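Quick entry between incubations.
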Amino acid sequence: MNLGDMNWLEVQEYLVKEDRILIVLGATEQHGYLSVTTDVSIPLALANSASEATGVVVAPPMNFGISPYFLEYPGTISLRASTFLDVVEDILRSLHHQGFRHFLILNGHGGNDAARGRIVELENELKRMKVAWYSWWMEPSVTAVAEKHGLVSHHAAWIEAFPFIHSRGIPEGSKDTLTPKTLMSAKEVREYAGDGVYGGPYKVADGIMDEIYAAALKDILELLKFENPPMHLI
Amino acid sequence: MNLGDMNWLEVQEYLVKEDRILIVLGATEQHGYLSVTTDVSIPLALANSASEATGVVVAPPMNFGISPYFLEYPGTISLRASTFLDVVEDILRSLHHQGFRHFLILNGHGGNDAARGRIVELENELKRMKVAWYSWWMEPSVTAVAEKHGLVSHHAAWIEAFPFIHSRGIPEGSKDTLTPKTLMSAKEVREYAGDGVYGGPYKVADGIMDEIYAAALKDILELLKFENPPMHLI
Amino acid sequence: MNLGDMNWLEVQEYLVKEDRILIVLGATEQHGYLSVTTDVSIPLALANSASEATGVVVAPPMNFGISPYFLEYPGTISLRASTFLDVVEDILRSLHHQGFRHFLILNGHGGNDAARGRIVELENELKRMKVAWYSWWMEPSVTAVAEKHGLVSHHAAWIEAFPFIHSRGIPEGSKDTLTPKTLMSAKEVREYAGDGVYGGPYKVADGIMDEIYAAALKDILELLKFENPPMHLI
Amino acid sequence: MNLGDMNWLEVQEYLVKEDRILIVLGATEQHGYLSVTTDVSIPLALANSASEATGVVVAPPMNFGISPYFLEYPGTISLRASTFLDVVEDILRSLHHQGFRHFLILNGHGGNDAARGRIVELENELKRMKVAWYSWWMEPSVTAVAEKHGLVSHHAAWIEAFPFIHSRGIPEGSKDTLTPKTLMSAKEVREYAGDGVYGGPYKVADGIMDEIYAAALKDILELLKFENPPMHLI
Amino acid sequence: MNLGDMNWLEVQEYLVKEDRILIVLGATEQHGYLSVTTDVSIPLALANSASEATGVVVAPPMNFGISPYFLEYPGTISLRASTFLDVVEDILRSLHHQGFRHFLILNGHGGNDAARGRIVELENELKRMKVAWYSWWMEPSVTAVAEKHGLVSHHAAWIEAFPFIHSRGIPEGSKDTLTPKTLMSAKEVREYAGDGVYGGPYKVADGIMDEIYAAALKDILELLKFENPPMHLI
Amino acid sequence: MNLGDMNWLEVQEYLVKEDRILIVLGATEQHGYLSVTTDVSIPLALANSASEATGVVVAPPMNFGISPYFLEYPGTISLRASTFLDVVEDILRSLHHQGFRHFLILNGHGGNDAARGRIVELENELKRMKVAWYSWWMEPSVTAVAEKHGLVSHHAAWIEAFPFIHSRGIPEGSKDTLTPKTLMSAKEVREYAGDGVYGGPYKVADGIMDEIYAAALKDILELLKFENPPMHLI
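Done. Structure below.
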């Protein structure tokens, strides 16, 4: 269930017996042949699946992240790092004020990791707040699936090419892996990364994608229990 | 067409012959018996209708706005004023960098008006940029329809109760109009505004809602021409 | 009485029996043929009149506001939106710390409205604080006087041409009304608005100005009672 | 002449032959038995005298400064250091944009010195900008007059007790000098400084005050020439 | 050679033939039985070794980083994420202004990674600037050495226990690995992590530490060539 | 003893019986023929001497300060005023959180004075915190030594030319004193100040330097007692 499918009275009822919420932090940025909102769509799909299974509500997604390196690719909307941290703080602070206590953040974009320090600052200030951060594509369960199939994950390549993501013109075959040694400016990245894909197969069989999705979803359902030490609130 | 239905190559093609974009600024906040994302859903619906008619692309919506006065109502997510202004600046700056030049902002929430000063600051800095700001519920064409039917608009009342908005438990009849004389804190608002509706009929006939929608859409299509003086870029 | 006519011991005495204060938020910006500090002078005059009638003290005026659109007109001093919000917060926070509780803000400039969200954020944090915001030229009592005389208000036109405002070279007659459809940059505004007046008669009879002034003052005296629900502090 | 006594057309005329402006940075804070706006009134008086002698225009004063240590004294309005720096930047940037080039800042309050670093940052960015900063009470010419009469200057004592400053209840005689060794909080200052005067005679003969005033004014008139090396713009 | 061993004339000479500089970003935070400045000392040692081998100058280290999760451990000094990003920007901007062009950042602390987005923002703005970011303990060459010896790296364990780091009371043996599933507050971390070590052997043979050091240094010397594509400046 | 020579357990032991700490705020900026880190090295030497005598611990130095006026001299690293204030706040807040209560700041650079207002803001917020600020070169005890020898202090001249500071090429004799009348931009300063020394003898006898050092150290040892009124915590 999405927060957008509820009015405030329904949210109030929800809070009587539940204090968990799923937060989607995405990005709008180049993803090669895939939709520029790939980093929103994947964690949102996972959030919705997890919500169906558990009844935990999903907040409206944050559609923009920290993507300064892709700004030369049309369709990329990048928030300054400082802006993004403020947004994340404000979302969590608002919901915490109303009684939400367990936040599972489904992050869709690596650049957004910078917000984790700010979240800990917030936890230091607010009482009884528990935040888990899940970046699906780099979690052990997911990379284990990839490894099983002899695959490695790179930006905009097969790992993000889920059937439910808009795409156009995905090439056959593989691309040589890009391994930048420096922090490149947007202009350099555009020249360096060409079509924007960072290497490996452009696409793999739907069955593998299903496994990937299932592995991530299983992690999320586990995390939603907020059970493992030190998960108790103090 | 939504930006999310395109990859960057498609956005690049789009920019060859077009430099307009529709930006939706919403809010996630109490709306009485209506969805907490009402302020996203209405301008997004209008944006999509306008996009269908013109082919102008719609950016992913900004789902959060400035709503500090509703923070005691569960489900309200309010960004600090400073955060919201930064977000709006970053969205516009990113898209302008890639060649977008005509921005029609469909604003769904009165509290977001604070961003207009920042946008002008940005226009002073960037070159050849034209931004129009449309707050559908308070524009002359829309209030004219309301007046024709003897209606006045208030927060979370009939004017926002479109059939396509999630609602539950909308009462029959009307509510006395609330006319606060001060800037109230969230605690005061909760006590003062009760169910969160600011007065007038809770709901009106679908036909009136269609007229309202049509009036707003007509305005938007007109604004999208970016024709009237001083619309030329300098 | 102005705060500047008191030393701290006198302010301390004042606070024993009174916790109200009048705050003037102005602007220094082009006003056509009128003084660039018109937006300070009018609310300050009203504040002084109200102070004479009630003994409520007037804080030193904030002489600068948010006016990015007028920066191409010499004599305009515009604070960034973020700066202005910080100033308003700091003024209120300082006075609240010392025991002031009822703040009537007499705002002289439309662009300053952006501060209202910040004020609510502050009310959410501080205890027992009541802030009313009064923008004299757009309040119902004042527009009723205008309507009675068949007049509409526009920037720098008759509505601000009080006899006590410095002016030079006010033309006879009327100007066509300006109705910008977009948020214009300072450069565009300068080209578009010419002498800086937004239309209607440049000046009207002193008697009408007296009526306008009296209507606003009456409102202010009423607001200073901080009586109407939900004016009680919680 | 004050900027407030001009409309924008007059400012435009002024800029044809002149690019100097006097900026008053004050404070609203306890001054013992003297007005809480003493730090505005003195530099503003000097600015007006200098303006009369030279025709250089005076900007509307900034009435608030950085005074966190006096916040326990009623009537003190302190801006955060960050806020004040932003204000000073915005004032200078606005006026520089319109063609002002030589800025003489008459500062009335020691705490405001923190803005000087920001001003240099601004000079590094903007072209052809010359800013002089004058804190009248600590300049050599003024302390020489004090020394001649065997006097030392302290906050809120004789040096600020000009006849044109509102005062009430100034005691006879002298107060022991306060010499705090630490940065005290507002609570400590209130306990430590009692009536808020930092020591020395509460008041001296008007003749001495005239000498002080004349010495400061002479400095200001000299500085307004912006002549001494390295005053040339590059 | 350290910048601190040069005066500005020597830096000027240096810049005639060289535009590289080594920047050390550290942290002051709990490291179990090791010095609280371990995250400064290790990258600084590497920087000095690299400087000896190449003559590239080393800037004074930034001794504080982003460590909110360790604030309950005495001796931890944590900068807010926003502060740290500003510091990194200002250091790079200053040096770039004077002609430095190739920056090799030796980062000693994982929490500091948040600055990378800001650096790319800066690269987008400034011209001809190349920044490489090296976090020694997680680079492939270093983890390969660890793997060779059957070791895994964790905070404050063997991987940081270089002989040149101050330590007291390092226990014998190993600690169970900590694998937190959430972003913990400082209070939770203190309870959870006990002595502050995150698991594995507390210490290993000096020979292994030499191999680790050598592997990192070799990487650094390679990176200092700024040779690999896309290392050319555009 | 330096904080860097302790692990957190040792800091914890220290806090059982002691709550004082020495904080060094320096700068990296041109100092004529002296090291660019002169403003770090001098207060750090004094801090270490005071630590030896008293056992009070020394925090890792903050190596960068506010030096925008020297940015045209290679080797100058200047933090924006806003950045520096944030850093000082974060350092103090972190240490206060862990139980440090008496902070003696040894400041090495005049431009850093801007942080004092921010520190008072912090004292107003935090409980039981005492901060003393010592700028060695301008304190009465030190200027008395200078006067005794007929000397006046200027930037980068004899007063900073301690034998333990790196220098190269210090000229014989004296330089005419620079007395800038305005706030100069970095470009102007470079042209105006030439070698960067602000006048007087480039160097004096070691014996005088020893006296200077001893006078400052004596002050510091006295301040470390935190004895004089109003030093008691409230």
